[in-house]
Fold Acyl-CoA thioesterase.
Amino acid sequence: MNNRQLTMSQVMLPHQANVAGNVHGGEIMKFMDTTAGAVAIRYSKSNCVTARVDELEFHLPIFVGALVTCTATVVYVGRTSMEVFVNVEVEDLESASGPQKALSAYFTMVAMGRNGKPQNVPPYEPVTEDEIREHDAAQVRIADRQAKKKKK
Ligand SMILES: CCCCCCCCCCCCCCCC(=O)SCCNC(=O)CCNC(=O)[C@H](O)C(C)(C)COP(=O)(O)OP(=O)(O)OC[C@H]1O[C@@H](n2cnc3c(N)ncnc32)[C@H](O)[C@@H]1OP(=O)(O)O
């Protein structure tokens, strides 16, 4: 089992949409957060909180009845934090077009100890070319963020 990746699917229901049938962005964001949280909990074996979500851009409308699939992957592990890439695909089950990419984002999840403080998570060493590329890109993003924070 790959404990760094987890996929969850949901059919969108009327209570998640506006009167025109468009699913609220917040519903999708909550689903992404839950998927990121679940994989982070499984990876770290502890409760996790969301510390940060990077840019979100909705490329496609999502309508009631669509099957939405979130795949969350831990791409970088710090001392107590994990960067999780969440990819969202949407599928109209009545059409033959198959799943289409709707949006994606990076979530930073922090493992919390029972004392309410961040706690260490198991280290992660990327192995495949894709894993190493994602890991290196995460390091660049984190360094950029830290540099911006220092400027403030
Ligand atoms: C156990 C149960 C099992 C049940 C199974 C059920 C499964 C069902 C799944 C549902 C899953 C739902 C998942 C939703 C989870 C929420 O939505 S939680 C609610 C929203 N989030 C919050 O309330 C968090 C509020 N913020 C905080 O509590 C604190 O700011 C934090 C995030 C703990 C950080 O505290 P801090 O004092 O700044 O800690 P600090 O030691 O300085 O930093 C800790 C790490 O966080 C990083 N960090 C801190 N702030 C940031 C930031 N803004 N950006 C990036 N990184 C940051 C630091 O760089 C550091 O990283 P490392 O170098 O250690 O790797």
The radius of gyration is 17 Å.
